[in-house]
Every structure is written in structure tokens, then in C-alpha cells.
Amino acid sequence: MKRNGFTLVEVIVVICVMAILMAVSVPVATSYFQDANENKVMNEAKTVLEVAKSHLSMKASLSGTFIEDRTLSEEQKQEITEKAYVEGELKNLEYTNSKISSFKYCNLNLCVISTDGQNLELDK
After folding, report:
1. Does a structural domain hold residue 11?
2. Do the domain assignments include residue 58?
3. Label partner for 61 (CA 20 to 30 A): which of 2, 8, 15, 104?
4. 122 with 108: CB under 8 angstroms?
5. What is the secondary structure of the chain as a DSSP string?
């Protein structure tokens, strides 16, 4: 007797094996993508922070004095993110005597903050 296909039991077994593999691989892939997004946003924030430091240093050297305590305007924030070539948005940047005292950068529904202008951490 010659068979020309798969039996129903064989098809069900293959479908069950594929379902088990998907149940295991989807959470792993999701975790991988989340970690990749977090690393991307953290690296972008580092770049933005360095560009912002350079921006403040340049302004201070041109004026010959420290820049007064204040925050940046929306136009200045936009200029910094454009110079950094990033996709996200600089939400907050405060500085004292030309040194950054507070920083917040957001992209991909993730935000990175710094309360000292040096150490960055994800805002969860």
C-alpha cells in the first residue's frame, strides 16, 4: 500500500512542536529587541550629552565668562539633537556655571536621565 501524504496525527504533532518552539522563542526575541532599544537610546543620550557639553563650552568661550544658571530654549534643544544626529528628543537640560546639572533625553518610549550631568540611567 502506497501513501501519498501525511496522516492527521503527523500534522498535529508537527503543529504542536512548532507551537512549543514559538512559545519559547517569542519571549527571547522580545527581550533581545528591548535590550537593543535600551542600548540604542542610552548611546544616543551619551552623544546628546557630549554635544550639549560642547555647545555650552563653546558659548562660554565665546562670551569669555560662565553662562548664567538656566535651561535651554526649545530651539537650542533642537539644535543640539540635530548636531548629534539622533532621532529622539532632548526633553530637559539645565546647567549651572556652564556645567550640566540635569538632563533628560527620550526616544522609542524610553527616557534617559542624569541628575549630575555625568552618570546616565534609564528612567523606568
Report:
1. no
2. yes
3. 104
4. no
5. ----S--HHHHHHHHHHHHHHHHHHHHHHHHHHHHHHHHHHHHHHHHHHHHHHHHHHHHHHHHTSPPPSEE--HHHHHHHHHHHT-SSEEEEEEEETTEEEEEEEEETTEEEEESSSS--EEE-
Q: Whole-model pTM above 0.90?
A: no
The number of folded domains in the chain is 1
Please give the grid coordinates belonging to residue 19.
507551537
The residues with which 99 forms a beta bridge, in sequence order, are 96
Domain boundaries, position 84: 38-123
Question: Do 90 and 76 form a contact (C-beta atoms < 8 A)?
Answer: no
Task: Express each pLDDT in 9-46 by its tens digit.
Answer: 999 999 999 999 999 999 999 999 999 999 999 999 99
Confidence of residue 65 (pLDDT cuts 50, 70, 90): low
